[in-house]
Specification:
Length: 166
């Protein structure tokens, strides 16, 4: 199974493609970030994010897409912009007939580190370890996107095992 994890942001949207092979090993397929200038209007940034995510989906053919769920934000304007990026990510997935699963930050950290309140650096280190990478994925948004994909793959594996029980 191959999952595209997306860490939504208005200036930097991270992405990470992770595959769970037949032997139960996680493998990084691709990761990076869609970086956009604040000087570009929000509609143009949203269009660019949509186009780039669609390109990644066509190129890598994931089975599913996973994104981080909305979390509490102090700045309402930032939260609204983030919601728009999340909507674009969902639209890109839906336009390619892919299911989208949303995960709370605590769930993602628990799946990757084993502790829901882990620090960002701990998540990055575990992502590198789980994917057998020599270095921590950069930028941090890409590492977060990989963590989201890993969380989704772990969740699917757990559900599959539970369904296999008599």
């Amino acid at each position: 199974m191959r999952v595209l994890g997306i860490d939504c942001g208005t200036e930097c949207t991270g992405y990470g493609l992770v595959e769970l092979d037949g032997g139960g090993q996680l493998q990084s397929i691709d990761f990076g970030a869609i970086k956009l200038s604040r000087q570009i209007s929000l509609p143009v940034r949203l269009s660019t994010i949509f186009d780039q995510l669609c390109r990644l989906i066509r190129e890598h053919q994931p089975d599913a897409v996973a994104i981080e769920d909305v979390f509490y934000a102090v700045n309402v304007k930032s939260a609204l912009k983030l919601g728009q990026v999340r909507g674009v990510a969902m639209l890109a997935a839906a336009s390619h007939h892919l299911a989208v699963t949303e995960y709370a930050p605590l769930t993602i950290k628990s799946a990757v580190v084993g502790y829901g309140k882990a620090e960002k650096r701990q998540v990055q280190l575990m992502v590198a370890r789980l994917l057998h990478l020599e270095e921590i994925p950069e930028p941090a948004d890409a590492a977060d996107a990989l963590a989201i994909a890993i969380c989704d793959l772990h969740t699917h594996a757990t559900v599959s095992r539970q369904q296999a029980l008599p």
